Structures are given as C-alpha cells and as structure tokens.
Sequence to fold (201 residues):
Amino acid sequence: MIATIKQCPRSLTRALGLGALALATSVTVAACGSSPAASSTPTPTKSPTSKASPTKSPAQSAGLTVKTATVAGFGSVLVNAQDRTLYMLTSESGGQLTCTVASGCTQYWREVDLPAGVTAATAATGAESSMLGTETGASGTVVTYNGWPLYTFSGDSAVNQANGEGLKSYGGTWYVLGASGTPVKSKTSSSPSSSPGGYSY
Fold:
C-alpha cells in the first residue's frame, strides 16, 4: 500500500475479497485514515534535576576553635569551643614538651590536639589567628598559642573554671593564657603540690 493515500475509493473497497480484506485490514485502516494516528508511546519527560547537598570537609565539620571568655579571678582568657579553660606549662618554653604520656601528665592535662584531617585551629572571638600554630605533641598534633602547647585540665568540672591555675608539676607551673599569649597570673592563685581530687603528680 502507498503511505501517501489520504482516502480510499469505494471501488477499491468493493474490489477486495473478504479474505484479502481481512489480511489487509490493519494496513488499509492506517492508509485510509484522514490523518496519521497519534503515537501511543508516551513522550518521555525529564525528571527534575536534584542537587546533592554539599558535603563538609573534615576541616569544616570537625574543626578546632580557640577563643576567649571571662573566667572569674582571671578576666579574659583562652578557652576552647566548649568554653573549657586552656592552659600552658612554663617548662615547655622553646617547644620542649615535658607533659608526656609516659610521665602520666596527659591523664590529667589533656592536649588540645587537632582532629584527623584538620591542619590548623581557628581563632574566634578575642583570639589572634597569628598566635596559633602546631607542633608534634605527646598524643597528636597539639595546638600552640604564641608557641605554648595548649591543654585542658581534668580538674575543671564545668565551663569557665580555672582550677589548674598555679599548680606546679611536670617541671613547671600551669597558667591560663590571655589573648596576648602571655600567662595570666591571678593574685589568688596557689601552688599546691597536688591537684584537686586527691591525685598527686
């Protein structure tokens, strides 16, 4: 059959035998239609493009922040993101660590170490980014401020406490640090031979 036929003459229909008509029905119907049949296949539609949420790098999701906060008796001192007071040890000047795992120091004075995948600490309110640095510590890459390795004290049971101020152990004296990077020495600080809680050094 010729695909360009628009209408079939009646003479053509009469001429066809019943058998031939039956065999040619599908072709005849298609050829004799007044217009091409609409396609029954649905036109594929584009699904909306979904944008994946950006994933945070380790530095963004698990960073380490140093800032300042007011601690009674000491004024504005360095703290971490959880407002735990940060300390330095006088015997560690010049980058020589005396607070070590072997000596048992890190059981009480916890190094402020960078999380895995993080290369630097971030300075927040009051702290100076130029003062921040790192060095290899007793248990990881310890954050330093003005060259002093930073620690938190297990004897501080709540935020904005400084129970470790003035304690003498592991070759030096523990002090809190101001934003200028110098030790802050309270007039009321003492120098006991043991820490609060009864454990000795």
